[in-house]
Amino acid sequence: MPKKNQNKEIQTRFRSVDISEVKGSEDSREIEVIWTTGATVRRHDWDGDYDEELVVSDSTVNLERLNSGNAPVLDTHSKSSTDNIVGVVLRAWIENGIGKAIVRISKREDVEGIWQDIQDRILRNLSIGYRVNKFEVTEEDGKVPLYRAVDWEPYEISLVPVGADAGAVVRSQDDKNTCDFVYLGNRNKDNDDMPVPNKENAAETGSQVDAEAIRAEATKKERERIRSINDIATKANLGSDFVARMSAADHSVDKVREFAFDEMAKKSEEVRTSPSIQIGIDYDSKESKRAAIETALAARHSKHVIPEGKAREYMGMSLAEMMRDYTGSKERSSSALVERAMTTSDFPAILANVGHKILIPVYNEAQQSFKSIARIVTVNDFKPSSLVSLGSFPDLKKLKQNGEFEQGKVNESGENIKVETYASSYSITRQSLVNDDVMAFANHFNNIGLVIAKFENKRFWEYVKENGKLADGSALFNASRGNYNATATALSYDAISAARVAMRNQKGLDKEKLGIGPKSLVVSPENETKAEQYCSSVYVPNEADKINVFAGKLAPICEAELSGKDWYLFADPMMNGLTVAYLEGEIGPRVRTSNPDNAEATKISVALDFGVGAAGAYGTYFQKGA
Fold it and tell me: What is the DSSP letter of 211?
């Protein structure tokens, strides 16, 4: 007897295809690809293994999304950012049981490498994301069930480095859709002449009851089941992974309880056999409450902070309510409660930690060109620290017959770097806290993160533009060092080539050629367009060569701290002398609170220990522009 037809939620699915047979136009970047052949693949769910077959025909595949003009070509199915969109599907169709499409690859600079890899047949794997709306299910003794997708819809195509597992599905709760399961019976030895299932006879064997009513009732029951699973997991302390596994499977609530008991038994056994003492988290301790309050306050104003556990409880509370819960006070007046909190040592520290949680991600994400150019080091204190120059170690010499090493001399350039402290302060008043105006506090620290990042970058370029003297008495950029051309020269392909030759010929402390090549071309906004042109893979310097040797080797960097038409070449950070230093253990800004001397304001300070210097002039080049 066939199983009863069902309507339930299933996960979005992936399938991979080899795109080595890609056809297309290099100029338009429009390529023809095969996105499905409808092959049968083995999958697995909580009920066991089954075979999934995609029926590929005009009547079974909904191509509306692929033909909408909005279906994306993604980088490895990632939907987190527009940067992950590398193209668009222009047209899709079915031809002799095969799904084909014309896609256009983006001409954005960050997609150049992907396009080149497609042309060179290095990137050969394609994967589609699709949703199944209806399965016809056939069972046969001794074999796994066959699930034939007779109503399904592809919605995106992805380029992937490795072909996706044919049995892969998306496990996100947001990537589900409702699917009809029509059971066509058991094809056993007593029923060998049962027809192969198709969309037409599936409709005949389906229920005659109103489909919308069935769908609504099934959706309601599934929601109740998921709610029950969450309740069971919460009471058994089994976590989100258990909920995800049980939700994906078609188990009854009673069956889920059995699994929960099994999981609890396993945990109990692990505790009994563990040689160490397991100490749980005391969510009612002041330390836990303090950490949760800090996380909740930061999460309100920073996308980088995710509230978990007890922090979620504080998300909907006012600042006064948080302080009431934290201190256990019975005080009803928000003003009196905040005033009392501000005269303790805990509350100012909480504000400092919140500021730090908000500030640091903004600071880390800010664009700072010096990070692509300078070597980053840490020093132990505020005294001048010696910098080791490239080429300071003695050259290797042939080992003597008696095995004795010949002593070499280590040359020292005499360069050093010194870290200085830079700081500013900010006061948050009792009035703003009584008004629960934490938004102003949070916005201030968002701005501080950007300001400090900009300050570091500005200080670095001030050092470069000052062109100060090194330990040998000569300027950082000096013609005698082979890193400066005093003759004004406009930025051009030939000028960059000449500057590269000069950098290759630069010498170390022992007058040996270092052979360092440039990695970055740094220009002011006036030269940004030219710099991008000369570093582009599609730029042709002349018709004779028809190749740009700088493409992929030289990265253009536009720096707003520069002006005019001067330009620079810099080698890899580990191969040039420019150096940025922080105090050890204090990389980036730090937030501190001063001891409150009254209940009207709390002073918060932000400080940075930072220094700029150079171990030498090697790997750098400065050209006066024209």
Answer: H
**Which of 584, 586, 591 is closest to 424 using CA atoms?**
591
**What is d(CA 132, CA 152) in angstroms, rounded to the nearest whole number?**
4
Q: Which helix (H) or strand (E) holds 605?
A: strand 601-614
| Strands across the sheet containing 620-623 | 484-485, 620-623, 567-570, 520-523, 555-558
Q: SS3 sequence, 485-551? A: ECCCCCCCHHHHHHHHHHHHCCECCCCCECCCCCCEEEECHHHHHHHHHHCCCCCCCCCCCCCCCCC
Of the ranges 234-243, 530-539, 593-602, which is most confident?
530-539
Contacts of 53 (CB under 8 A, 6+ apart): 38, 39, 40, 146, 147, 148, 149
The helix/strand/coil state of 289 is helix
Under 8 Å between Cβ of 356 and 386 = no
Distance CA 127, CA 64 (A): 18
Tokens of 8: 């339930």
Judged by DSSP in three states, 182 sits in strand
Q: DSSP letters along 124-154, please?
A: -EEEEEEEEEEEEEEE-TTS--EEEEEEEEE
The model carries a pTM of 0.51
Q: What is the pLDDT of residues 106-119, one digit of tens each?
A: 888 888 888 887 87
**pLDDT tens column, 421-469:** 998 887 777 676 666 556 666 777 788 888 999 999 999 999 999 999 9
DSSP state of 46: T
Rounded alpha-carbon distances, angstroms, from residue 97 to 37, 54, 61, 167, 193: 7, 10, 11, 21, 25
